[in-house]
Design goal:
eight-stranded mixed β-sheet; alpha+beta; 30% helix; 52 strands; Immunoglobulin-like; elongated; 35 helices; single chain
């Protein structure tokens, strides 16, 4: 109801009704209504047009008018205790009637914008109306004082005039009227009631005659006659107007009061007003209109004028104001001299301002203003003017009265006037500040007067009323903050029940502000709940607590939530509502913020309630328990459909890796793309495109995370998945025929978090959905957690946001297919730790665990360091037995259809014959070689494809994924250097620097093999180990066995001679081999460097959900990029394999490994290789001859791809620093090298000399050194030396004495006339000449 309408309904004239016993019986017997109850519905008069004039002679019309009727002896204010007890009963009744009102979700309502505050507390309006009614008929205001008296007598009385007189004098008057505080000079009106149910002489005509006689004696307008009980009273003839009487019927108090009797007559079977006809009701309506217009309103207008005249003559004007200012508070002054006729005299003639009255007012106590005092008359004038809708007159009079009362310090009366000033200013369209200021002033003054009153609680109730008016005014004008302030101020001094109601309304006001103050709302509502509980209003207290749950939820206000749930849980448990109690106690379990003692206490409290609920109901409800913490939003589904996983490691690999491996397997198969048309007319709740596929009899696993946030241990038993088949069986016991659910038990320590795999095995084809997980907490409390439903994504967005595998891992709905073949694979004898370069033979076991035969097995390996041989002959035996050289190898029982096909990025495709099938339970073994080369972690992946032997509906193939990883430790480090040999012009020297990287074990280098075509290797002689030459050369072969042992953490160096293909004397024998290096597993591993085959870190091609054949074939069989022109022109060097072993305690090889060296190149490339040979020891008789001459032969070989011109200069020393050095020319095309013994002729351009001459003869002579001299030409020319050819130049030296001479001071110069104009040089090789005297 609007605030203005409420004021117009509440602050209206009151009429005192005095009725005879016979009149009451006529009304109550047939209708169940008293006279007052019968008149009340027609006290609201509409469509009036009554002209009225204000005291200032301003004319206006009253359009609507309301009259209140009360029984005379009930017009008193009930005692405080009785009123409070009645109000408590009103609240209990209203709360029970509103028990079905839904508790709102505050946060959801605010977010959605839906209003719920208006009807959230329906008991508040009922309580508020009754609270204001309990304050009626007080001495502070005159609204409830009667302005008229209605005497009611039955029309069958003998002499109505005398009967009316006796009735008035014998009737009980209102207590305040008997005390002289009410105006006793009232307008009198008389009413005769004729009851058609009363058998009387003359009937209604006789009653009309009595009406005429009474009007002749009392006045025509002062007497009326109405006719009632014209109806039969049976349910068939009732008009259905009962509803017009029920709302106006307030409650009754045991002793009466507040305008109502102690009790009401019983309700007739046909309801209220059963015998009243429409004509009877029209009589009542006409009577009340005539009474209000012709009697009541004129009397009220006349009384307003009279009171205004008295007030004007005593309080208005300069003279009266000076008298009031000078003599108002003086003892024996103006007030004492005033008699009964004085405006300031009381009705009893006593002074109200002199002597003790002034002293009492000085102490702030209540001053007893009588109805005849000026103050009483001013208050009566203001109230009458207000009821006459003359708000300006009322407001001006109230302000004048307030100034007098403030001077008298009569705070209680002053507060009442301020309260009425606020109402009057509102009706007069005053500002909000003035209206609220008046109400606040009234509240403050009521509280100030309370300590000086005999009944302080009465002032508290009036103060609360003032704040209620202020709050309602502010709320309806949008000032909800001011309304909250008023209600909060009012609740502090109130008793618990009323304080709880005020706090509840204050909290609701906070939700109406913009933006809503949600936190303050929750705090106030919790305080309201505490006050409700304190006054034993448990239901309302629980409701207040429940309203704030949504506010505190999810905001980490753990202690507040804990308190709310604790209070609600205990109240529900005490009332026997175990279901609600368990919900609240369960919400307290997740309390990591609490000490361990309270955690144990809350857990025990919950378990005790579970036991009590089981004893009371016989069954324990299944709750969504917060313990353990189940991450239902992030569950991972692991099921095998067309893609199976052989071990957990395979599931951890990225989907791009498996797509690249499975592309070659699917490139030749028909894998049609499914669409929405394939679902046909399925009536399933889930589209076929949103289903995972599983096979009956195969396990479905769901990975979930469980956590224990507490510090106490939790025992979780009967942990299992929940599912729903489609269609859902009517009997829950039939679920066991659809799937077999595996249960687990786990004990979670304090703070522990685990991730478990829960399994379910479907037993029959159809549709199945996983809905959640259930468990038993501490052996007694059943709980469950539903999985968060995943919203299906659009196909286009799904391809961008997540791969197909990610979508399947989150989909919880399955299409269960009938039995299918299933290939399972395992790798035996694979150690978790291996050495870098170790070669190990493992066993690959393939087994069909399905119920249908399979065939067409194909596999793809991700790494070139994993090898499947062409047959399974090497399945038995150890690694060393299968690698030993010279063994007899038997044929395998089965073989591959074709050897492994090399694919791009190091992948290899293996295909078994299509006719080779595996029946259910059959197994096939195959050797699998593993050769990790680098330290760290070595991972390899295998993808298998198999097909059913016969066509199976729903799945034409199945893929198996298998992943393994090995920790690789460092073992042998080998550094190789290749240099030209000084002993000849063809062979090379190989230097192997080896270090044992193990810290505890020794290893043995068993074999060094050269695996390049045409190249051979040989050992060096003993002498060659020191000076690089071999006194006793070993024959070259493909392998040598040095058998060098390297202790732990030591290093060693070994030298070998490498023979290129052009060495004509190279042997073709394999030599001594410890293991087979040129064939088998080692040859496969050495076939190509791993660094060229390893998986590159490049993005994989993106395919749709189902790739096409062309995309798969292009992704799998894409040829590797061709080498560049520079790489193709550069000749490749030899490849070398170093085979080693680690012995066990008995000295036998425990493991075997190989180190691969690819494309060895010379450390320093030499363009012209040269050797200086001659007789190293000469004997000469220096006594007979003067000097000794020695002939030396310089052999030269052109190691480039272009023809060279050479010049040998003797006696020149080393070349200077500024001369150019040789560099290869990559532009030259490669030519075959052939050996030659003589120089070629036909040089078209001469080699320029060092002296700068361009041609001519060179001088002949000897350039001498300090110990020997050169003989012959200073420069020797070789005009043209073709590529790969050799030539010999003879040089001579002369020595003068015996001794050892180092021949080194000569240069070899050359140029490439057909390539560039540069000149190159290098010092010639040294030669040591020993000359011995012949006589010695």
């Amino acid at each position: 109801m609007e605030f203005r309408e409420w004021i117009l309904e509440r602050l209206t004239p009151a009429v005192m009704v005095i009725s005879s016993q016979e009149a009451e019986e006529i009304c109550q017997e047939k209708n169940g209504l008293t006279v007052v109850d019968m008149l009340r519905p027609y006290g609201f008069l509409h469509q009036l047009s009554v002209p009225v004039r204000t005291v200032g002679e301003h004319a206006y019309r009253i359009r609507e008018f309301r009259v209140r009727f009360y029984k005379a002896d009930m017009m008193f204010q009930p005692p405080l205790e009785a009123a409070d007890e009645y109000l408590k009963g009103v609240l209990n009744t209203a709360a029970k009637e509103s028990h079905a009102v839904e508790i709102p979700d505050v946060m959801a309502a605010l977010q959605s914008g839906k209003g719920f505050l208006a009807d959230n507390t329906p008991w508040w309006n009922k309580y508020l109306d009754e609270f204001h009614r309990m304050l009626s008929f007080g001495e502070l205001e005159t609204f409830d004082h009667p302005v008229g008296c209605l005497l009611v007598m039955h029309a069958h009385v003998g002499n109505p005039v005398e009967a009316f007189g006796r009735l008035f004098h014998s009737a009980r008057k209102p207590p305040l009227m008997a005390e002289g505080k009410m105006e006793h000079r009232l307008v009198m009106h008389h009413l005769l009631i004729h009851g058609d149910n009363v058998q009387a002489d003359g009937g209604y005509a006789r009653s009309e005659e009595k009406l005429k006689a009474a009007r002749a004696a009392l006045g025509t307008a002062a007497v009326h006659l109405i006719r009632i009980n014209s109806g039969k009273g049976d349910p068939a003839s009732v008009l259905g107007y009962e509803s017009i009487w029920r709302p106006p019927l307030p409650g009754t108090l045991p002793g009466g009061g507040a305008g109502e009797p102690p009790s009401r007559p019983p309700v007739p079977p046909a309801g209220y007003g059963a015998c009243l006809t429409k004509a009877n009701l029209d009589d009542i309506k006409r009577f009340l209109e005539d009474f209000a217009v012709r009697a009541l309103l004129p009397a009220m207008e006349a009384r307003v004028r009279a009171l205004n005249h008295q007030v004007t003559s005593t309080r208005k004007g300069l003279r009266n104001q000076l008298k009031t200012l000078l003599w108002r508070k003086q003892p024996g002054g103006l007030g004492a001299a005033a008699g009964r006729d004085s405006p300031r005299g009381s009705v009893h003639g006593g002074s109200v301002h002199g002597g003790s009255a002034a002293a009492a007012s000085a102490n702030g106590s209540a001053v007893p203003y009588g109805g005849g005092s000026v103050e009483g008359q001013m208050r009566a004038l203001a109230d009458l003017a207000f009821m006459m809708q003359d708000y300006d007159t009322a407001l001006s009079t109230l302000r004048l009265l307030a100034s007098d009362l403030r001077s008298d310090k009569a705070w209680k009366q002053y507060a009442a006037v301020q309260e009425m000033i606020g109402v009057s200013m509102f009706m007069a369209r005053g500002t909000m500040t003035d209206v609220l200021g008046a109400f606040k002033e009234a509240f403050y003054r009521y509280n100030s007067a309370a300590p000086h009153e005999a009944q302080p609680r009465e002032c508290v109730r009036y103060a609360t009323r003032a704040m209620l008016l202020a709050a309602e005014y502010a709320r309806q004008h949008g000032a909800c903050n001011d309304a909250n302030y008023a209600l909060m101020k009012a609740h502090f001094q109130e008793e618990n029940l009323r304080a709880a109601l005020l706090l509840e309304q204050a909290a609701l006001c906070l939700l109406r502000v913009s933006p809503p103050s949600v936190r303050k709302y929750a705090f106030h509502m919790v305080l309201a709940g505490l006050r409700y509980n304190a006054c034993d209003q448990k239901a309302l207290g629980m409701r207040a607590y429940r309203q704030v749950l949504s506010v505190y939820k999810g905001h980490s206000w753990a202690f507040i939530e804990e308190h709310i749930h604790d209070v609600l849980g205990k109240q529900c448990r005490d009332t026997g509502n175990f279901d609600a109690a368990l919900e609240h106690f369960a919400a307290m379990l997740n309390c990591p913020h609490s000490p361990p003692y309270w955690q144990s206490h809350y857990l025990k409290q919950f378990m005790d309630t579970i036991a009590a609920a089981g004893n009371a109901k016989g069954a324990v409800p299944v709750l969504e328990l917060p313990l353990p913490v189940v991450d239902a939003d992030h569950v991972t589904v692991q099921c095998d459909n067309e893609i199976c996983h052989g071990n957990p490691e395979s599931r951890a690999q990225p989907e791009e890796l498996w797509r690249s491996l499975e592309g070659p397997l699917l490139s030749g198969m028909d894998i049609g793309v499914a669409s929405w048309l394939d679902s046909g007319g399925s009536s399933s709740k889930v589209s076929a495109l949103q289903l995972n596929t599983a096979v009956a009899g195969e396990m479905i696993e769901v990975l979930i995370s469980l956590g224990n946030p507490l510090a106490v241990d939790l025992q979780i038993s009967r942990l299992r998945l929940m599912f729903e088949p489609e269609p859902m069986p009517t009997d829950a016991a039939d679920l066991q025929h659809y799937a077999e659910v595996l249960e687990q038990m786990v004990v979670l320590k304090g703070g522990e978090q685990v991730r478990l795999a829960l399994g379910l095995r479907p037993l029959r084809p159809g549709l199945l959905t996983l809905t959640g997980v259930e468990w038993l907490l501490n052996g007694n409390a059943p709980g469950h957690k539903l999985f968060a439903p995943k919203r299906p994504r659009h196909r286009r967005t799904a391809s961008r946001a997540a791969t197909k595998a990610e979508q399947q891992s989150q989909c919880l709905s399955f299409n269960i297919l009938d039995a299918l073949p299933r290939l399972e694979a395992s790798v035996d004898q694979l150690l978790p730790t291996m050495l870098a370069g170790e070669v190990r033979k493992c066993t690959l076991r393939l087994r069909n665990t399905g119920s249908v035969p399979l065939r067409g097995i194909r596999a793809v390996s991700s790494s070139p360091d994993v090898y499947l041989p062409p047959d399974n002959a090497d399945t038995s035996g150890s690694t060393l037995d299968n690698l030993t050289s010279g063994r007899e190898r038997a044929a395998g029982a089965s073989g591959l259809q074709e050897p492994g096909i090399r694919l791009r990025r190091g992948m290899t495709l293996y295909t078994w014959p299509a006719a080779q099938a595996l029946g259910p339970g059959q197994e096939m073994q195959w050797p699998l070689w593993v050769h990790p080369r680098d330290k760290g972690q070595f991972a390899f992946h295998l993808a298998f494809l198999s097909e059913p032997e016969a066509h199976v509906e729903g799945m034409s193939y199945r893929l198996l994924r298998l992943s393994h990883s090995v920790d690789v430790l460092p073992c042998l480090h080998v550094a190789a250097e290749l240099a030209a040999s000084r002993a000849d012009l063809v062979t090379f020297m190989l230097k192997l620097s080896m270090r044992n990287m193990q810290g505890l074990q020794a290893l043995t280098v068993r074999q060094v093999s050269c695996l390049s075509e045409g190249w051979r290797i040989s050992l060096l002689g003993r002498r060659g180990l020191h000076d690089g030459t071999s006194a006793t050369p070993f024959p070259p072969s493909t392998s040598v066995t040095p058998a060098a042992e390297l202790p732990a953490a030591t290093a060693a160096t070994a030298h070998f001679r490498m023979h290129p293909p052009e060495a004509a004397t190279a042997s073709r024998s394999p030599g001594e081999e410890w293991v087979q290096a040129a064939e088998g597993a080692l040859a496969h591993f050495h076939s190509e460097p791993t660094k060229r085959l390893q998986l590159e870190a490049q993005p994989e091609q993106q395919f749709p959900t189902r790739p096409s054949k062309a995309e798969l074939r292009s992704a799998a069989l894409e040829p590797p990029p061709e080498p560049s022109t520079s790489e193709a022109n550069q000749p490749s060097g030899p490849d070398v394999m170093v085979v080693w072993s680690v012995p066990d305690s008995a000295g036998n090889p425990r493991c075997i490994g190989a180190h691969h060296i690819y494309d060895l190149q010379e450390k320093e490339k030499v363009a012209i290789r040269a050797t200086l040979q001659g007789e190293e020891r000469l004997r000469h008789n220096f006594g007979h001859g003067g000097f000794c001459a020695a002939a030396l032969h310089l052999e030269l070989r052109n190691c480039t791809d272009a023809a060279a011109s050479l010049c040998i200069e003797t006696g020149t020393g080393s070349p200077s620093r500024g001369e150019a050095v040789w560099r290869p020319s990559p532009e030259l095309a490669p030519q075959s090298s052939t050996a030659g013994d003589s120089a070629a002729a036909g040089l078209s351009q001469e080699l320029p000399s060092s002296s700068g001459r361009s041609g001519g003869a060179f001088p002949v002579g000897a350039r001498s050194g300090s110990e020997y001299m050169w003989c012959g030409s200073v420069r020797t020319l070789v005009t043209s030396l073709p590529p790969g050819r050799t030539t010999r130049v003879t040089l001579r030296v002369v020595v003068m004495a015996p001794g050892e001479y180092e021949i080194s001071d000569y240069l070899i110069r050359w140029a490439f006339p057909g390539v560039d104009q540069l000149q190159y040089s290098q010092p010639g090789p040294k030669f040591v000449l020993r000359v011995v005297d012949g006589e010695g």
